[in-house]
């Protein structure tokens, strides 16, 4: 039953698409828009004004951007600025709702979750982070309870942070594999990719680089300058290089030349896009056994899962890298994380919602 659906994607209110403020969600919106259009569905995107997304036309909505949820405290009340773009986005969605079969929300915010039952079964949500606040936890539980099937996460470990073991759709994620080139013969160096911020635990990867003497290529936006300076001072003799915040093309050019990607996150990663980007280049992933990466990495086959926050185990895993077949890493990306695999998963969810 492959009917042609009219789908409205409502983006995150923290920044215009293309600004990078929306982090991983920007790539997720783009990839889902691409696969839905490829499969013949009509895709419309509503997002904060000045948003841009490749060839997609966007309904630009004005208003004040929303505070980043991860900068707030767990017990904080909902904050809505005057002339909030979040409120304006959902005012718009409500006005045009009858023109769509499905309205898919990407905002990690209370308002759209609360509105779920008011949209007569059309409104569904892809939750983009783990549990961060009581108000969001409660809104997610209420949406599932009132509208079963209306919530998707990227991984089961992400869902578990909300205390959920069932009653949701697990979408995983995907990347455009044609942008990532396989590399069989790497240099003797390691990669670390991510926002440079305390919850990403960069210092552990730097410590492992210092212990093994293997150079560490660091890529990503410096979000916390003081945190970065502390690392540089505390590990002044570690063989590290900061390569900046790179485009996908430049990022994969660097990562593919590495023996492994090292993931040292302190918090529960909802998914771990950088892990599938590495696998797509044939690069094994060594990660703390915490959150999304535990559902991506096949331990001892496409990488190693080590005891969280244990630098010695990182070092031991680095010393076992020759046991990993880099081609198998690429194969896993092709089987599970291609845009085509994502297309199957998103259609499965949408048709499930339509038929219920
Ligand atoms: N914070 N309030 C709020 N709303 C979002 O949609 C949001 C956010 N913080 C981060 C974020 N989205 C995305 O960058 C991550 O989900 C990837």
TrEMBL record:
Residue ranges constituting the Glycosyl transferase family domain according to the UniProt record: 185-321
One Pfam family here: Glycos_transf_1
UniProt-recorded Gene Ontology molecular function terms: glycosyltransferase activity
UniProt-listed InterPro entries: Glyco_trans_1, Glycosyltransferase_grp1
Name of the protein in question: Glycosyl transferase family 1 domain-containing protein
Species: Planktothrix tepida PCC 9214
């Amino acid at each position: 039953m492959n009917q042609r659906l009219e789908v409205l994607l409502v983006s995150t209110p923290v920044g215009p698409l293309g600004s990078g403020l929306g982090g991983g969600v920007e790539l997720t919106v783009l990839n889902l828009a691409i696969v839905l259009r490829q499969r013949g569905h009509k895709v419309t995107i509503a997002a904060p004004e000045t948003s841009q997304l490749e060839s997609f036309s966007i309904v630009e909505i004005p208003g004040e951007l929303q505070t980043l949820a991860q900068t707030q405290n767990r017990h904080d009340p909902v904050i809505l600025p005057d002339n909030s773009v979040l409120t304006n986005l959902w005012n718009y969605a409500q006005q045009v709702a009858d023109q769509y079969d499905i309205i898919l929300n990407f905002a990690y915010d209370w308002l759209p979750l609360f509105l779920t039952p008011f949209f007569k079964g059309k409104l569904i949500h892809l939750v983009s982070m783990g549990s961060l606040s009581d108000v969001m936890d409660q809104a997610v539980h209420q949406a599932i309870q009132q509208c079963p099937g209306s919530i998707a996460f990227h991984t089961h470990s992400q869902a578990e942070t909300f205390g959920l073991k069932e009653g949701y759709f697990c979408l995983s994620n995907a990347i455009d594999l044609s942008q990532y080139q396989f590399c069989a013969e790497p240099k003797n160096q390691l990669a670390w990719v991510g926002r440079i911020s305390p919850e990403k635990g960069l210092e552990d990867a730097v410590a492992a680089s210092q212990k093994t003497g293997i150079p560490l290529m660091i890529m990503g936006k410096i979000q916390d300058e003081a945190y970065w300076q502390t690392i540089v001072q505390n590990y002044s003799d570690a063989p590290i290089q900061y390569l900046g915040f790179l485009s996908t093309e430049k990022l994969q050019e660097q990562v593919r030349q590495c023996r492994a990607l090292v993931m040292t996150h302190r918090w529960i990663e909802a998914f771990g896009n950088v892990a599938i980007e590495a696998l797509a280049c044939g690069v094994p992933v060594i990660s703390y056994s915490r959150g999304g990466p535990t559902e991506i990495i096949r331990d001892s086959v496409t990488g190693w899962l080590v005891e969280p926050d244990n630098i010695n185990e990182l070092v031991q895993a680095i010393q076992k890298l020759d046991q990993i077949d880099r081609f198998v890493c690429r194969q896993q990306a092709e089987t599970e994380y291609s845009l085509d695999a994502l297309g199957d998963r998103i259609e499965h969810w949408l048709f499930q919602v339509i038929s219920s």
